[in-house]
Write a structure and sequence with these properties.
Spore Coat Polysaccharide Biosynthesis Protein SpsA, Chain A; globular
């Protein structure tokens, strides 16, 4: 990051979710929070944000790579938006689908189809042609938000351990009348799904926990019931998942 950003201009705050290696000695000049356990994405970011003094916060996943100064254009966009995020690229430089609609039964199905076909030329072209615009949400892998807005809405909902916390955050920002913007002229690389790949079984459980929490929080009882019935059929032989659903 520092090779692409001006020196001594930004605060550097690292929330270490109890990783295998203690990285404090390798991060000179950064505020380093070594957490005693894995608190999940949202809660760890909330703890890091408590230390921040700047007017804007930029949350960046550890599996992201800076290939340019994407911070300066994002900060310029903050004059007109409360949340903004860059175009996210895969390591092969194809474009990730890093924005989308609020989740519901129909919208999740449509977003899933697009994700499955993300590498195809029609979907890549569709993403490119969107340009800079205002989606319902932008990915939390690289998300900038005004500090005052973040604190007024209470930051990330810590109940979301993994996934959907970015959708929930953007929804709450929009509900207070502020805008969310996807800035296609700023770029960052993201090696997606590394957190889930490290523990696939537990990752899938956390995804479903977050999905159910989002539906309870934002969607109708009928939408929640449909989701539960779908998940019951999908995981009919998985007792642990069935206990989670009901």
């Amino acid at each position: 990051m520092k090779s692409h950003l001006p020196a001594n201009l930004y605060e550097w705050i690292v929330a270490d979710n109890n990783s295998v290696e203690n990285l404090s000695a390798e991060l000179p000049g950064a505020t380093y929070l070594r957490l005693p356990e894995n608190h999940g994405f949202g809660r760890a970011n909330n703890l890091a944000a408590e230390k921040a003094k700047a007017p804007c916060l930029f949350f960046v996943n550890p599996d992201c790579e800076f290939i340019e100064d994407c911070v300066t254009p994002l900060l310029a966009m903050m004059k007109d938006a409360a949340v903004t995020a860059p175009r996210v690229l895969n390591p092969d430089r194809s474009i990730q689908l890093s924005f989308g609609p609020y989740i519901s039964i129909f919208q999740e199905a449509r977003q899933k189809r697009r994700m499955q076909n993300e590498q195809t030329e029609p979907v890549q072209r569709w993403i490119r042609e969107k340009g800079t615009f205002a989606p319902d949400f932008v990915s939390g892998c690289a998300l900038m938000i005004r500090t005052d807005v973040y604190r007024e809405i209470g930051g990330f909902d810590p109940v979301f351990f993994l996934y959907h916390e970015d959708v929930d955050l953007c929804k709450r920002v929009s509900e207070r009348g502020d805008s969310v913007v996807y800035l296609s002229t700023a770029r960052i690389v993201h090696a997606r799904n590394k957190s889930v790949d490290q523990n696939r079984k537990q990752g899938n459980i956390e995804i479903r926990k977050s999905q159910l929490h989002y539906y309870r929080k934002h969607n109708s009882p009928m939408q929640l019931l449909i989701l539960k019935l779908y998940l019951t059929l999908k995981f009919a032989t998985n007792k642990q998942m069935l206990r989670l659903i009901w």
